[in-house]
Amino acid sequence: MPDKETDSSLIDIREDSLLELSQEVLESLLRDHTTGRNIFWATHDYEALGSEYDYHAPILPHLITGERGMIIRPRVLKSKENQTERAKDKAEVFTPSWICNAQNNLVDEAWFGRKDVFNVEDTTSHTWQTNPDKIEFPEGKTWKDYVCATRMEITCGEAPYLVSRYDTTTGIPIPLEQRIGLLDRKLRVVGENTETCEDWLDWAQVAYRHTYGYEWQGDNLLLAREALLWTFIEYYQEKFGKRPLLEIINDMADTISWNLWQMDGLKGVVPDSCHDVVSRNPNAQQLDLFAADIPEASAPQVTPCPGCQKDDIRSHNGTYCKIKDWDTGKEIKFISLLQ
Known about the structure:
Blueprint lengths: L7 H4 L3 H7 L1 H7 L50 H11 L6 H16 L6 E4 L4 E4 L12 H6 L2 E3 L28 H12 L3 H13 L1 E5 L2 H23 L5 H14 E3 L14 E3 L4 H4 L13 E3 L2 H5 L11 E4 L4 E4 L6
Helix pairs in contact: 2-3, 3-10, 7-8, 7-9, 9-10
C-alpha cells in the first residue's frame, strides 16, 4: 500500500503526451460513438474560458493541449472549492482506494468462492498486502473465464474501481504490483498465464472488451479513458520491457472509447438529450385569424419527454447510448441489455 506524497507528474496524464504519441490516440479518447461527434464538457466549470468551453460544447484537442494543456486535471489536483462545487452539483464524491479494494475483493470472493484471492486487507490501517503467489482458480473455472467475466463501474468518474494508478482521494500513486482495480486484476492474471507478446495482447484485449463504465461529465470520462489506456501501456512495459507499438495503442484507445462512454445513467441516454417537443395545431393558420380574441387558440403545443414524465427508461426521446457487442461486432443500445 502506498504511503508517499502526491506527485502530479505521476498521476496526471497530460493530453500533450497523448498528442505526442499520436493525434489519432487523442481523437479516439475524445470520440463519442453514439453521436458520431466528440464527448462534450457536460459541466459549467470551464465556461469562463470562452464559448468553446460551454456546457454543451464538444471537447476538442486544441482546447486541452498546448497553452491549455493543464485544463483537465484529476479531481485531487483541482481546487478544494471546485471539488466542493462538483460534489454539490453532480454528487461527485470519489472513493478511497482501500474502499475500492474492499468492494472489489467481495466481487472476487463471490467469483472464486474464497477470500483474500488478490490481497489481504488490514481494516485497521486501511491498507492491504498483495498476494505474491500466482492466482489459483477454483475447480470448473479457468483464468480465461475470469478474464472474460463482464465487469462494469457505474458513474465511474475517473474509474478507480477499474484501474488504480493512484488513490483518487489523496493523489498518492500506487505501484503496479499493488494495484487493486477490477481491470488491474484481469491484467495481472493475463500476465501470469501468457508468455508471448501475441498471447498477452490477445487476452489483454479480451480483458478490456469485457470491462465497462459510463460517466456524465466529459472531463471525468476523458480522465477515465486516459487511465485505462495508460494502465495498458504500463502493464505491457512491465511484461516486455518496452512500450507497445503505436498501432496497438491506437487499437486499444478505440476499444476503450467504446467501453467507457458518456451517459445519463438514470435514463440510458446522452446527458441532457431529452427534450420537449413543440408542435402547432394543424389548423393554426385559420386560428390565427382569431388570435387577438383567443390568444391561446394558436399557441404551440409543448409535449415533455414521455420517459421523463413517466420515469420510464425505455420511453425517453433523448439519444439512447450505443455500445459494441464485441462478439458480433454490432452496435447495440445499452438499455437493450437491461432486464
